[in-house]
Amino acid sequence: xxxxxxxxxxxxxxxxxxxxxxxxxxxxxxxxxxxxxxxxxxxxxxxxxxxxxxxxxxxxxxxxxxxxxxxxxxxxxxxxxxxxxxxxxxxxxxxxxxxxxxxxxxxxxxxxxxxxxxxxxxxxxxxxxxxxxxxxxxxxxxxxxxxxxxxxxxxxxxxxxxxxxxxxxxxxxxxxxxxxxxxxxxxxxxxxxxxxxxxxxxxxxxxxxxxxxxxxxxxxxxxxxxxxxxxxxxxxxxxxxxxxxxxxxxxxxxxxxxxx
Length: 260
Hints:
It is a single chain. This protein has a single domain (3-200, 239-259), classed as Rossmann fold (3-Layer(aba) Sandwich). It is built from eight helices and twelve strands. It has helices spanning 24-27, 29-33, 56-59, 77-87, 113-127, 138-155, 189-192, 239-259; strands at 13-17, 37-42, 62-66, 89-90, 95-97, 106-111, 163-168, 170-174, 180-184, 201-207, 213-216, 234-236. The strands form three sheets. An eight-stranded mixed sheet has the order 3-2-6-7-1-10-11-12.
C-alpha cells in the first residue's frame, strides 16, 4: 500500500485528564454550547456542576445516562453500560439508536474513565461471587484489565464516526528508573501508563493563578501529553476548539493524501 492510500479519519479522540475540581466535567459543556449533540455516559453522578456552564440551547443538546453500582446490591453498572455501548442508547426518555450510527455532529463522553475502571472491577468481583469493594484476586485484576482494554480498543476503533471524549483523574506512577509522572488513572498503575496508546490526543486541564481554566497540549516533566494538530502550549478550556483543530488537521491530511 502506498502511504497516500493509508486511511485517515476526521474523528476526534480525546483523553482529558485533570484533578478533581479542575473543570473536566464543566469543560464538556463547551461542546454542547458549540452545537454538538453531547451524549454523556455518567459514572460519577456529579454532572450537576455542568448546568451552570450550559446555555439554554446547549442544555437541549445534552443527553445523559448514569451508571453507578449501589453498595448493598450486586454490581450491574458495567453490564448496563456495555448494553448501551453495544446495543444502543435507550432509556425511558430517549431512543438514540446504535452508537455506530452517530455522526461527527455528536460527541460521546465518558465521565470518567477512572470510575469506569471502578465499575469494571466491581463486575469482576460480581462474576467471582464477591460484594462490591471486596478485595480483588489476581484473576479479578486480570479480568478487569482485559475488559477495559477491550472496551478502549472498541471505542477508539474506526467502527464509530462520532467524536469521543473521556475524562480521568491523574495518577502518579513511578517507572523502573525511578522517574515519576502522572497518567490518566484507569484500573491499575501499569495500565494507566499505557492509556495514551489508545488516544490520538491526551491533554490536561488545570487552573491558572487568576482562576481561569486552560487545557495544556504539550507535555512536561509532570505528564506526557500529545495532540494531533498545531496548537499552542495551552488553550482556553474549550473542547469544541480542540475537536475543531484536531479534525481540521486530519481533514487536511486526508486532502493532502488524495493530491499526492
